[in-house]
Structure to design on (598 residues):
């Protein structure tokens, strides 16, 4: 799990790299203390809100190639079309974003209330938006010639914004990167991945030193087999050796649990988790994480993507991430001319107007103390609770459930009349009388100051966890360690899904399981058309096979018997994978239960 321990592990990587292809260690590792870690993360935790920028050659085709629309996100066009490297390279000669204005971009972020900018220095197509000494597949070789990282870094410093470099490990252009794409006709013999890793480290050295100290390294494209945990740990160590203050995301290593973004159990490099296009279902105490999202459906610009999220949705997502103790990294995909799309600017401006009034409910706050709130979200700072009300009570009565403290004051941010708003204790709850109309339709913030640190009684059931209850071993989806392609935990189904590859598996390890004979059952869902695959449940040195029955659809869960097994006492590992038969997908799996046989 992405915890202090991982940060300490990451901090152990001070100095150069040891190990294969890394140029050898240059300094003794030093453990970063929790206090030092907290100091290094302090600005990031305070910031809560940043701008993501996906920009590169792919903005030129903007989702079309040879007169045809290419599906998928704009920055993936080379693979989705596909476009051979030799055909893609001429885009370099067309890149001339004469309307690019780094100050305008950085100010748009700042005025939206964002505190940091993370921009693609190199995406998967391998093209560098900076002047690299080790490649001419870079902006210096374009008609534009200007060093974009230089201009962004200078603008960020001018306007007091923190600087983040996104850098893709996966590289579809470099001849030494492996594996080759299926569509790539270039021969792979002679390709030397170690040599690619040296190139990767050299370019990272360039972007980490040529523009002054930068604040965040946002790695991506770490999911392929050639990139390993060992390489991730070494690379994080390399980067931290260049700048011990830099904050590095968890995609430098292999711990990420797919789009859910947080680390699987274990020790992984990286300072924060990276949920993508989603916000974790609940606050994750002790964990740093940042949800990254698009404003429409694409990261890199597509001329045909007009599916914009409303400003209200984006404001509420910001409230949602902050209410769970996370950061929100919101993306813009500038055009080939160098302009942030008007629709993005409109939303940024609207978010900025909301932040002008309510920023104190976001910056430097922690996850609120409540479980699910019927009317909105809550953040917390000292004795202040920021009630971010999405559904404003038409009857003027806002109930705060389970708040045990007395209330010192109630202030509605942005409310013109600074009057006192009556408070009524109703058993464990506190009822506030508020005006009939909200201040902002998306979210109106009620700042409630308590007497003493807020204390809340929650009737929310604690989040279920895997473990042994009354002799029954329960293994739940959210705790599964997932391995293999595509498989992921699906928040909305609370199940392991996307089991579309026979190599994928889900496993659990539970200590202190009593000896005995157990009946195994599984909560599964399987669309009728995909039924008939075979699932293999491997535990206690035995394999139980289940022919997956139809349950109707991927969300229709049913508990099905799997078999009976005798187990010795001790630590139990259960691994679920594909057996011999495999259809469209194996199944969705919500829970595995081992009940002592009667
Ligand atoms: O493949 C990339 C994608 O293009 C985009 O950069 C996102 C942003 O986080 N990351 C990868 C998909 O997870």
């Amino acid at each position: 799990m992405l915890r202090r321990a991982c940060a300490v592990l990451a901090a152990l990587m001070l100095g150069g790299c040891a190990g294969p292809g890394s140029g050898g260690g240059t300094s003794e590792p030093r453990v970063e203390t929790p206090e030092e870690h907290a100091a290094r993360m302090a600005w990031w935790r305070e910031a809560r809100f940043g701008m993501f920028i996906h920009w590169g050659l792919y903005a030129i085709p903007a989702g079309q190639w040879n007169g045809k629309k290419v599906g998928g996100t704009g920055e993936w066009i080379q693979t989705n079309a596909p476009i051979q490297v030799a055909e893609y390279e001429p885009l370099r000669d067309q890149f001339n974003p004469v309307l690019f204005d780094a100050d305008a971009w950085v100010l748009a972020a700042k005025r939206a209330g964002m505190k940091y900018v993370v921009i693609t220095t190199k995406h998967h197509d391998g093209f560098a938006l900076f002047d690299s000494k080790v490649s001419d597949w870079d902006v210096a070789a374009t008609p534009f010639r200007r060093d974009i990282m230089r201009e962004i870094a200078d603008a960020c410093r001018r306007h007091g914004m923190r600087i983040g470099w996104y850098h893709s490990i996966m590289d579809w252009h470099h001849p030494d990167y492996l594996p080759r794409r299926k569509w790539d006709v270039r021969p792979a013999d002679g390709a030397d991945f170690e040599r690619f890793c040296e190139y990767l480290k050299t370019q990272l050295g360039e972007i980490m030193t040529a523009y002054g100290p930068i604040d965040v390294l946002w790695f991506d494209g770490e999911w392929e087999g050639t990139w390993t945990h060992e390489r991730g740990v070494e690379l994080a160590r390399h980067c931290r050796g260049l700048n011990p203050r830099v904050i590095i995301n968890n995609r430098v290593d292999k711990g990420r649990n797919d789009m859910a973004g947080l680390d699987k159990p274990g020790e992984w490099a990286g300072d924060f988790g990276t949920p993508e296009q989603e916000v974790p279902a609940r606050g994750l105490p002790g964990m740093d994480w940042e949800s990254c999202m698009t404003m429409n459906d694409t990261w890199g610009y597509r001329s045909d993507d007009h599916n914009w999220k409303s400003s209200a949705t984006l404001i509420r997502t910001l409230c949602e991430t902050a209410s769970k103790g996370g950061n929100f990294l919101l993306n813009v995909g500038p055009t080939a001319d160098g302009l942030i799309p008007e629709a993005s600017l409109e939303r940024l401006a609207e978010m900025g107007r909301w932040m002008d009034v309510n920023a104190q409910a976001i910056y430097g706050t922690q996850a609120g103390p409540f479980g699910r709130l019927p009317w909105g979200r809550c953040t917390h700072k000292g004795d202040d609770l920021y009630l971010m009300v999405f559904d404003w009570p038409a009857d003027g009565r806002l109930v705060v459930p389970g708040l045990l403290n007395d209330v010192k004051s109630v202030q509605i941010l942005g409310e013109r009349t600074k009057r006192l708003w009556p408070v009524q204790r109703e058993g464990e709850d506190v009822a506030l009388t508020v005006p009939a109309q909200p201040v902002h339709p998306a979210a109106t913030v009620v700042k409630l100051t308590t007497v003493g640190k807020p204390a809340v009684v929650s009737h929310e059931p604690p989040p279920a966890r895997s473990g042994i209850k009354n002799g029954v071993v329960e293994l739940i989806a959210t705790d599964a360690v997932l391995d293999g392609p595509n498989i992921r935990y699906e928040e909305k189904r609370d199940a392991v899904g996307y089991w579309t590859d026979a190599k994928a598996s889900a496993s659990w390890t539970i200590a202190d399981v009593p000896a005995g004979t157990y009946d195994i059952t599984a909560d599964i869902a399987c669309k009728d058309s995909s039924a008939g695959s075979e699932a293999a449940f491997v535990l206690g040195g035995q394999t139980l096979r289940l022919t997956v029955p139809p349950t109707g659809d991927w969300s229709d869960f049913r508990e099905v018997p799997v078999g009976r097994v005798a187990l010795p006492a001790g630590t139990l590992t259960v691994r679920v994978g594909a057996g011999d038969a495999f259809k469209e997908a194996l199944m969705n799996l919500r829970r595995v239960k081992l009940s002592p046989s009667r």
Remarks:
- The mean pLDDT is 91.
- The longest helix spans residues 193-209.
